[in-house]
Specification:
The protein is an alpha/beta fold. It is built from 14 helices and 17 strands. The protein folds into two domains: 141 residues, 3-Layer(aba) Sandwich (Leucine Aminopeptidase, subunit E, domain 1), CATH 3.40.220.10; 314 residues, Zn peptidases (Aminopeptidase). α4 runs antiparallel to α8 and α8 packs across α14. The model has no long low-confidence stretch (mean pLDDT 96).
Length: 476
């Protein structure tokens, strides 16, 4: 979808549909012969959030969108309202949609909500396509919003690109295909290691997970290294298990098809890095992705096996379905070895976090209060919420192994998300580190603008984090 900002009045933009937001107890600022206000006064157009009504005035089609109370309005409500409008606009056959940004309201939320809600994954559909799609979004405001509109569009398009990766079937989105997507990014340097190099580098934890599959594992390293930089080198690490059967500790058949989404963390860090490069942010980023399948075979890692990670730490495998932390252990160490000075990893790591937070918050864990606060604040600005959970020496005791340094699972099933984070912490040294468990937010999260399939969660958060570390003003 093309996106542009203008200071032209909506009727002069050439749009076939104009969206006008309506606040509680506020008159419509730019009415058309009294038609729009009459629709509100009659009760046909309602001001409650997610309510929309359609009318025609002055030779144009209008969609009136309820925005609720102005005092409660924020970027998230803008996304929700924009999603409602996008849905109705598609039904109407809209090709060019213009949002008239209300006075004293920022534009990015309307851009994000429209682009996210208009997304479709139709790669493998052979029919039932009515062809109704919004081709252009125009943002009309009294002042120049082009810079903020472009930033929002780039970050949201990257989130939608991550959704393409998430939604792709595992027979298509293999570790090699994920590496090919990384190589296609512009403005970055990419290095990819295969099985032989991963094993030669001493990444025994990552290599063990990959042994069960014929698919070649890929250690993907992406660098954004602009000439003029500010702030520390950011390390983004993503879990890229392109299909997770559970390995020898095989998962139940019910909903195993959803395990193609186990690479959601990798999709987020990959596309976020591409967006950061596209925006030209003066922030150095080193992104590391461990891409593999987790399958049962005669070569698979077994419960009871002991592995040696890149750092020399020995790990007893109690459950092969706790494979993500094994992959991330070596990837975290590699990111730090590559110069990362602040690290954040994203992973669909534990079902326990879904039990804790449902689909509303990602779980946030970390070793540094200031860094965790930055990650949380970036998520709040992006509308990708994270809530911090504690780490503690008593939790660390739970992952101690009888036969090795640590175990990859706690069989007592206590504090599942926290003990997983404690495991990861062992591989981060003294570098400030934050971990986002996105198992509940990455897909099927039920948001009005990402109701089904991959949600691209984390992309906009990471772009905001990079902006903040470059000293850029807030997006919203």
């Amino acid at each position: 979808m093309r996106v542009r900002a203008t200071t032209d009045a909506p009727p002069a933009t050439g749009a076939d549909t104009i969206a006008v937001g309506v606040f509680d107890e506020e008159p419509i600022a730019h009415d058309v012969d009294g038609v729009l206000q009459a629709l509100v006064d009659s009760g046909e157009a309602r001001t409650a959030l997610r309510k929309v009504a359609v009318t025609h005035a002055g030779g144009h089609r209008y969609v009136l969108a309820g925005l609720g109370n102005r005092d409660d309005f924020d970027p998230e409500r803008a996304r929700v309202a924009a999603a409602a409008v996008a849905g109705r606009a598609k039904e109407l056959g809209t090709r060019r949609l213009c949002w008239e940004v209300p006075h004293h309201v920022e534009a990015p939320g309307f851009v994000e909500g429209t682009l996210l809600a208009a997304y479709e994954y139709r790669e493998h559909k052979t029919g039932d396509d009515d062809g109704r799609r919004i081709e252009e979004l125009i943002v009309s405001a009294h002042h120049d919003t082009s810079a903020e509109v472009e930033r929002a569009a780039v970050a949201t398009e990257a989130a939608n690109a991550a959704r393409d990766l998430q939604n792709a079937p595992a027979n298509q989105l293999t570790p090699t295909a994920l590496a090919e997507r990384a190589r296609a990014l512009e403005g970055v340097a990419v290095e990819v290691w295969g099985r032989e190099q991963i094993e030669a580098a001493g990444m025994g934890a990552f290599a063990a997970v990959a042994r069960g599959s014929h698919a070649e594992p890929q250690l993907i390293t992406i660098r954004h290294d602009p000439p003029d930089v500010a702030g520390p080198v950011l390390g983004f690490v993503g879990k890229g298990v392109t299909f997770d059967s559970g390995g020898i500790s095989i998962k139940p058949a019910m909903k195993m098809s959803e395990m193609k989404f186990d690479m959601s963390g990798a999709a987020a860090v990959l596309e976020a890095t591409g967006a950061i490069a596209r925006l030209g942010l003066p922030t150095r980023v080193v992104t590391v992705i461990g891409a593999t399948e987790n399958l049962p075979s005669g070569h698979s890692v077994k419960p009871g096996d002991i592995l040696r990670a890149k750092t020399g730490t020995t790990i007893e495998v109690l459950n092969t379905d706790a494979e993500g932390r094994l992959v991330l252990a070596d990837c975290l160490a590699h990111a730090i070895e590559q110069g990362a000075e602040r690290v954040v990893d994203l992973a669909t790591l534990t079902g326990a976090i879904v039990t804790t937070f449902g689909n509303t918050y990602a779980g946030l864990f970390g070793s540094d209060d200031e860094w965790c606060a930055e990650v949380e604040a970036a998520g709040r600005r992006a509308g990708e919420l994270a809530w911090r959970l504690p780490l503690h020496a008593e939790y660390s005791e739970l992952i101690k192994s009888r036969y090795a340094d640590i175990a990859n699972a706690v069989e007592a099933r206590k504090a599942g998300s926290i003990t997983a984070a404690e495991f990861l912490r062992r591989f981060t040294g003294e570098v400030p580190w934050a971990h986002l468990d996105i198992a509940g937010t990455a897909y099927e999260n039920g948001k009005p603008y990402t109701p089904k399939g991959g949600a691209g969660f984390g992309v906009r958060l990471l772009v905001e984090l990079a902006r903040a570390n470059a000293g850029a003003p807030d997006l919203h």
